[in-house]
Amino acid sequence: MLTYCNKEIKILNRRFYCNILLLCCMLIIIGCGDSTSVTDGSETDNEVILRDYKLSGDETWDFEKTYIVHGTLEIPTEVVLEIPPGTVVKFGNNAQVRVRGKLKIGTPLFQEVLDELVLLTSINDNPEPGVWNGILFDFTHGADSFLRGVVIEFAKIGLDIKTTSPSIIDCTLRHNDTAIALDGSDSIIQHNAIIDNNIGIRTIERQNRPQIERNNITNNDTGIFCENVQTIIQENNLEKNNTSVWLNVKFNFGAPNNWWGSVLNEDIDKAIIDSNDTNIITKTIGTVLYEPISNIRFDEAGPRE
Q1: Are the beta carbons of 97 and 135 closer than 8 angstroms?
Q2: Spatial distance between the Cα atoms of 54 and 304, rounded to a whole number of angstroms
Q3: Model confidence over 57-102: pLDDT tens digits?
């Protein structure tokens, strides 16, 4: 009987020590894991990590820290997020900012001199366009938001603007699937560099009048994909795109006084898809009326220092 009890005690001791060893291994694995796998709002001396984070009140971020966003960063109605000049924000795969309140990024509009840039980018070392989802202005019905002096790169839709009109000024949008999408927006889009995207700007067919002026819209597959003929497009440099303007509605569209990289009609016609391209289009669309043509490049277009 005593021998049997001793055997049971030995078995229990083995199980106890095995469980202790297993627990220690798990703690070591957790401690050595990715530093981004921490809870919402975790903060170190250099980083703030946000995972599916919803603001509970107004916030102004610290430009001396790098912010890392996983999941959805949500700005609720009546809440303001300010991201000051010099801040770096990195986004995990499929991360998104959803704006229902107000978002103010970069140098204030009233300030004459542009401060240090804000960078919104992917957390990956070698990202592809579309790796994070971008910023969605989700039917906020306001015009107080702005981005000025901001670089947005590697997003699916850098700025997806629905039924609101933030100002987009002195920014660079590059290496995105779509840099800016405008749906029911009167946004002012001025002095930006919209470069190396699949689509630079896409406008939706609504009776709104966004102003796209004095931008460098270059080296995109499609510079402007236009479904809103109320849009103002003037004094832009529309050059070196595979297609500078693609019209996708049945109405004619006026886009006078832009630089197309050439003053020759035959060259400009090659940079436009409209009713003249019956070999490409599959539905009835209008014609882009691009005259008068600027005979010089706009040197003052693009972000200002």
Answers
A1: yes
A2: 34
A3: 999 999 999 999 999 999 999 999 999 999 999 999 999 999 999 9
